[in-house]
Amino acid sequence: MLSKQKVFALGLQHVLAMYAGAVIVPLVVGGALNLSGAQMAYLIAADLFTCGLATLLQVMGSKYFGSGLPVVLGCTFTAVSPIIAIASGSNLATAYGAIIISGLFVVLAAPVYGKLLKFFPTVVTGSVVTIIGLSLIPVAMNNVAGGQGSADFGQPRNLLLALITLLVILAVNRLTTGFLRSVSVLVGLVAGTAIGYFMGIVHFSTVTTASWVSVAQPFYFGWPQFSVTAIFTMIIVNIVSMVESTGVYFAVGKATDQKVEQKQIVNGLRSEGLAIMLGGLFNAFPYTAFSQNVGLLSLTRVKTRNVIFAAGGIMVVLGLLPKLAALTTVVPNAVLGGAMIVMFGSVAASGMSILADVDLRKDGNLLIAACSIAVGLGSAVLPSMFDQLPEFARMLLQNGIVSGSLTAIILNICLTRSQEHTAVAAGTAGAAAPEAK
User: What letters, b where the CB count within 10 A reaches 16 and e where it falls short, cover 300-321?
Assistant: First the structure.
C-alpha cells in the first residue's frame, strides 16, 4: 500500500510528464488571437483546472461515465487550428459554443461508436499502440533540441542536458528498487532541471510575475454563441479525438495488464464528452486521453488509480494557484525531451508486444501492421504533405495516430472480407468437384 506522500510524488510525475503538452495549446491559441497577458494567464489556469476535473471524471468510473482506467486527460492539439479559425472569423464565444455542442455530441455518440470496436482486433490494436509511440518520437526529439522555434534549437548544451536526463532515468530505473525506481522519471526531471539551472538555462521570471490565485469563471469570454459551421468543425475534431483516445485506452490496458472492455471505452468517451462541455463552460479546450502518460505506467509499474486521482487533484490546484503552475514551467524543454524518449519509446514497445501475439504470416496481418504503421509515422513526421487538402481531410490525415488507425481498420475490413470470399470460393469449388466427376 502506497503512502500519501508516495502517491503524491507519483501523481506529480504524471503532471510533469504531460504539462508541456497541456499548456502549449493555450499558449498557441492565445498568441495567435493576440490575447492580453491577463487573458493568457486565465486561459492557462482554466485549462489546468479543467484538465484536473476531466482526469478525475475519467478515473472515477460510474455506471455511465468514466472508464475507471488510469488515464490522464489533456487538451487535444487537433483543436488548435479550428479554434483559431473560428475565433478569427467571428469570436471566441462562437468557438466555445461549438465546443459545448460537440461535447454533447460525443456523450450521445459514444454508445454508437462502441459498436464499431469489433473492427479493432489484436492486429489493429497492436498497430495503433505502436503508432501512438512512434508518432510521438518527433515531439520528443524537438524537445531534446530545445523546442521547435526556440532561439537555441539544436545547441550542444540542449543535447547534453537531454542525454544527462535520459541517463539519470535509466540509472535510477535499473539500479534502484521500490518507490525510488517508480519515480525515476521525476528524479531525472529534477536532476536535469538542477543541472540546467547551473548551465544558465532555467529562469524563474514567470514564477515571480504570476499571480497567487485564479478562479476559473464560466463564460469568461462571454456567453456562448452558435454557428452550424463551427459546430460541425468541432464535431469532426472530436471524432478524431475519439479514435485517438481509443488507441490510448488499449495502450493503457496493455500497460496495466488488463483487457479493456467495450463498456469501459464507451463510458470513457462519455466522460471525455462531459469534459469537453466543461472546457466550453470554463472557456478552456476540448479534452482527450493523453498518450504522454501511457509510457509512465509501463516504466513505474504502478497501476493504481490513486496515482491518477492525485495527478488530477494536483492539476486542479495548479489551475487555482498560477504561481505554483508557473513553477512547473521552469523545466527546460531539453530535460522534458530526455524523459520523453524513454516514455514514448515504452509506448511503442508495448505496441510491438501486442503484435508479438499476432501471426504475421497469415490473414494479411503483415500488410495491416506494415502499412498502418508506415502511414501513421509518415503523417506524424511530415504532416505538411497534406497542406493542399481541404480542412476536413487535413484534420484527419495530419494526425499520425488517426491516419494510421484508419489505415489499419480499413485494411483489416478489406483484407478480412477478401479472405472470406477466397475461402467461400475454395469451398464452392471443392463441393463442385465431385459432381464434375
Answer: bebbebbbbbbbbbbbbebbbb
